[in-house]
Amino acid sequence: MEFVALGHPGSDHYAGLETFANPGVSQVEMTSDELTAICPVTGQPDLYVATIEFWPRDLCIESKSLKLYLSSFRNEGHFCEALAVRIRDDIAGVLELQPDKVRVTLTQKARGGITITATS
Predict the structure, then answer these.
(1) Residue 19: partners with Cβ closer than 8 Å, 6 or more residues away
(2) Which are the catalytic amino acids?
(3) Mind listing the pLDDT tens digit for each residue in 96-108?
(4) 74 near 59, Cβ under 8 Å?
(5) Mind giving me the DSSP string for 6-46?
(6) Is 103 left (phi over 0), alpha (psi -120 to 50) or beta?
(7) Are β-strands 102-111 and 19-21 bridged in parallel, bridged antiparallel, or unpaired?
(8) Looking at CB atoms within 10 Å, which of 2, 40, 46, 76 has the fewest?
(9) How far apart are CA 112 and CA 77, in angstroms?
């Protein structure tokens, strides 16, 4: 198996979400506090903690490709709720899972005194 991003510095080698054969795990949870998107109304940055859980069959996600995938939202406008659904659907698609086998929880760091948590 050859990964495109793993082993290379930066994001020049990003080729989308990469997977590898499930070695036999029944559940995976990945958490990142490096997700940023732009508020589609104000244009201000929204900072998130993303927790991605999935119950794999044949495939798992390679973590560096996930990090690069999450960083791809940095300059895009998204509401928290819609972004949670988009990430869930993308992860389910690459892992060849039904959406109910993937759970994405985004916690938007407080802005204006309000914290939002959206789970898809």
Answers:
(1) 59, 60, 61, 62, 94, 95
(2) 39, 46
(3) 999 999 999 999 9
(4) no
(5) TTSSSSTT--S--EEE--S-S-EEEEEEEEEEE-TTT--EE
(6) beta
(7) unpaired
(8) 2
(9) 18
Rounded to whole angstroms, the Cα distance separating 30 from 34 reads: 12
Question: Is residue 52 within a helix (H) or strand (E), and if so which, with residue range?
Answer: strand 45-54
Pull the structure tokens for residue 117.
């948590």
Evaluate if residue 79 carries a pLDDT over 90. yes
Q: Is the pTM of this model over 0.70?
A: yes
Torsion of CA 65, 58, 23, 28, to 10 degrees: 60
Token digits of residue 62:
């390679």
The pLDDT value recorded for residue 68 is 92
Strand partners, 51: 31, 105
Which residue matches tokens 């659907």?
89
User: Can you tell me which residue has the tokens 């560096």?
Assistant: 64
Q: Is 105 helix (H, G, I), strand (E, B) or coil?
A: strand
**pLDDT tens, 6-18?**
555 555 556 689 9
